[in-house]
Request: fold
Amino acid sequence: MKRLFIFIFISVLALNSYAQDLGDVNLSFGTDGSFVFNPSISHDKMEKILVQEDGKIITVGRARVDGTNYSVYVSRHNADGSLDETYGENGIAYFKAIPAIYMNHAFDAALNDKGYLFLAGYTYDYINNTGFVLCLDENGIENTDFGENGFAISDYGHGIDYEAIDIDANGRPVVAGYYDDNILVRRYNTKGKTDKTFGEDGTAIIKPGPSTYWSYAYDIEILDDGKMLITGHKVFEDGIQVTYLLRLKSNGDLDVTFANNGVLELNAGELAEYATSISVQADGKYLVAGHTDLFTSEPLPRSGSFITRINSDGTFDKSFGTDGFVRIEPFEGDGCINETYSILATTDGQIFGTIFSYNYTSGASRSYVYNLDANGQFKEDFAGSGIMALPKFIDNETSVRSLTLALKDNKNILAGGHVADDDPNNTNLFISCINIDIKDGNNEEPEDNINELSTSLLLYPNPVNDKIYIETEVEVEDVVVYDIYGRRQELSAVSCQPSAFDVSNLKSGVYFVKVVTSEGETLKRFVKK
Reply:
């Protein structure tokens, strides 16, 4: 039977040390599958994980560096989870939109095609807020060509908050959040100035429907055609709170061809609802995840997580789950809350998400990663049931929250968040790496006749700048190079004896070369500088 090539080379990368099942943590990552770290002495919080093209990992959030006030932190990690000590201060960099102020907090981040990192968040001085976008270059240094020394900062006041960010096809960052208790969507140009072609002077202020008293946006996704999806919740004048998904045209106007004049009320439950995350499937359908309060007979809260799927015209996809919804409640009963903050659709139709569960009666806490198929059913080959509990991270662990997901490659997904011990202020941040299996049509599927690594085959230099050489005692019939996602790379031969190939067109990162000889096939790993 054929296997995905990426499975073979990820096994090589892990030195064939472990045989692991789907839904297990990848034991070659960090310590026992997880990496735990502390950007500061207390109250750290991770909000986002991203993976660079070279396989390095970025996390962002907040850190209480001086013990009193909060800074934005950005960490960069090597592919095995360890901190990249060439970045910032031993792997972590710290920033403040406004110095000497209580709160500088990054909620979301996105990478552009140049590897620049854009962060969105807010500041707070005990009285009011400002929203900010921070742009960092590939070395974690403020991009002085963007805004003022890398920061684009909103006007002070009106409770403004940037909760989410995405980058459009023209490289312009677009943020979503709220302003004066209304939905705010703002587009900046590549220089950090508001884009006057969007909304009114760069900003769209939206009240989603009549009788809306408050409305907040928590996630944004820009579609291939430039339209934008925004999700969050709104509160009516009578106090009823519902979730929504709205779609904007690229100029910031509501797209009236979607749902009810551009806005779809999700009606995910009978009590207060919260929508927190969007992901767009390869077939163009929209996934929205969140949680909703549930009825309880006790004076304690109860909530359950939900996922719904929406067609591109704004109608519910009733073939998904039960009547268009999947509901998950790992902790059941009065006093149990189950909240979700991240959802991710893969190219082969699978769905992954995180859930944080807490029992107010017992104090028990656990975080989970789930895996659904394209129909919204749990994939039982993942952890045996379709849902796995993240491992215990520290001694005396009392509370753990998983808030973010990122695809590392077609065999691994990363979950991140924070964990506290007996002192709830003493938080640690974590990244866990979990085994998955994505069937990507771009990946090669060679036969199972790939031999073990041959000691008689030489591949040099490694790392390489421009030319790489292959020497072996038998005739080389074919040479194929793949990136860490299993995508075949263009390669041109330079000479025959020894076999030399031009790799100068490859981006910096880890690659795998399959060498076909008369004796079979051999895999080698190399690093392009």
Q: What stands out?
A: The CA atoms of residues 336 and 359 lie 4 Å apart. The two ends are 36 Å apart (CA to CA). The domain at 458-528 is CATH 2.60.40.10 (Immunoglobulin-like).
